[in-house]
């Protein structure tokens, strides 16, 4: 029976110096040396030939990639600008398959999430130069951009409208910004699919139709078998600035962003059938400013019959600022800061200066915090929409009572703590119960001596699951700013109109903490 050597012997062998081939005779040693020389020659030859082979293969690979990209029409990288191709007769079968004809030329899209996607399609004349602060003009007025014999690659989002981001405090976008985007599961003119048009929120101050995490997607279009559309519109002082100086040759008294939205819907109504949609089955939906914009368009005679259903998520409800009031305010502050007395002076201002002059010393987040705080009697939140022109002749509540609003099915929702993403008081998280009571009393007692007492009785420590002051306060402000006004709106609409109204409140809370920015994005819808 053969026994294995002791482990100590094995370890000793491992520690002994070892010289290979010492047991070979001279002949074996010669053969070994000869073979080694042959192996060295092979390695040397390979080291010289291999780079040549790799270089040749790389040239072939690059050539194949260029040919494929040229054939498939994938030459425009994400983030670049679309290119015009006037040689429509030489388009490949792939380009023809993803190309749609419109009144202002052909647009070549792409595939995304099993859907066809068209990004950055212009729908109006750019609001630049002397077109700034004027009602929106259809793209057909711009002969340079509206050419039926052109092919435009529509694979990249257009620029957002110029804005000062209230989070980053950085400027974003440009004035040439009136673009829309389409996600469709079918490019069949006879598909007659439902169309959902998303109107972005952002307090009429910021945002875009392609905001990450919020805008539609190809996967969503494919899953629901619905055509989705989104678009940009002018915001803040470039989109809503009521001044007499602008009204000489226009019926629009400051609601230029609303004019953009109506023009986008007119474009959709004329062209969506070519993207597989049915212009008679259009639903508009949006959160906060998007929802408020939908209410305004339901009231506007200029958007009559452009959509058949609406879904409003947490719409802003205040529409009580007349043009004359807004004009007096803007003359006293904006014009004085700009030192302009003529419209030509205002046209020469850069967009950034316009925004700065409008803000004055206010932080860009001021309007957001103001609207997410308790009101004080006599101090009205700064409203951008002006009531009383042809675009918006009366506020939505008044239009409901007089039955001059669109009679269409409505889905209206709010969140139980909608203002929690950015509440008015900066130090709310550190409040004591004494501070909470004092703040509520100071704000609400301006409406009457018992209002604050009743509010504190309704929103007390026993009326919350977590028992936190922050939850109580945000619930109180949300009820006052959104939940109750939206419920009143739904009731008034139900009592005066024939169409159905569906009202809901979201009470779900995240299971774990999320960053404020992410929570804000989801609250925006």
From TrEMBL:
Where does the Carboxylesterase type B domain start and stop, copy by copy? 99-513
Q: Where are the transmembrane segments?
A: 49-74
Give the Pfam families listed for this entry.
COesterase
Its keywords, alphabetically, are: Glycoprotein, Membrane, Transmembrane, Transmembrane helix
UniProt superkingdom: Eukaryota
The answer to whether keyword Transmembrane applies is yes
**InterPro entries recorded for this chain?**
AB_hydrolase_fold, CarbesteraseB, Carboxylesterase_B_CS, Type-B_Carboxylest/Lipase
User: What PROSITE patterns does the annotation carry?
Assistant: CARBOXYLESTERASE_B_2
Q: Which PANTHER family match?
A: CARBOXYLESTERASE
Protein's recorded name: Uncharacterized protein LOC106465212
| Native source organism of the sequence | Limulus polyphemus (Atlantic horseshoe crab)
The record's gene field reads: LOC106465212
